[in-house]
Amino acid sequence: xxxxxxxxxxxxxxxxxxxxxxxxxxxxxxxxxxxxxxxxxxxxxxxxxxxxxxxxxxxxxxxxxxxxxxxxxxxxxxxxxxxxxxxxxxxxxxxxxxxxxxxxxxxxxxxxxxxxxxxxxxxxxxxxxxxxxxxxxxxxxxxxxxxxxxxxxxxxxxxxxxxxxxxxxxxxxxxxxxxxxxxxxxxxxxxxxxxxxxxxxxxxxxxxxxxxxxxxxxxxxxxxxxxxxxxxxxxxxxxxxxxxxxxxxxxxxx
Length: 254
Hints:
Layout: H1 15-21, E1 28-32, H2 38-45, E2 49-54, H3 57-63, E3 69-72, H4 81-84, E4 92-96, H5 105-111, H6 113-117, E5 121-127, H7 132-139, H8 161-170, E6 174-182, H9 184-193, H10 208-227, H11 229-232, E7 233-241
Parallel strand pairs: 1-2, 1-4, 2-3, 4-5
Antiparallel strand pairs: 5-7, 6-7
């Protein structure tokens, strides 16, 4: 387990996950690895009941002001989740940028099986190690860990579009469709603009620069990234299930 001195790491909203879930109303959603609850806050404001799980006490303190419940748990011991929440009560389980941090991601998926057996859909986002800027770095002989992004130094596993699907299949899930987080602005922002971003003291999804990106840039970039997911996606979102009917696609919109 981490200590309370650990810095808050995950404040941002994963836009591909938000796009997949933003149409939900009155749903019970389990956000596994909820960070500070930035995504959960949007889902809560849309009228859903969001329960968060995090390993970080500092994140829990913030997320608790945004979500219905937030539980502190070491996700490398995923069987403990069933002691904290009723897994059979959820309509959706979100695992956004979390499985790559765990010692045994498949074990975590198996521990969540009661939710999937009762019809909960899984929305799993994984970083794409085959993204173009990682490939170019390898051509130049560089594979340098960073504080965040695809090469986050805390990642214990790396996935491509195909190996991500294979890992989910090992966890008993069938992928119905995928979406992407495009890479172009993410690379520019993290490489050149992050330190100089406007309003750095505000939550990322409330900042003017993020709002402009979400409304104006992300939709166009997403179209390009979908055309060649293996190369141009920085993250892949897998919409998956264990049985039953396929995961509904979100309504079309900006």
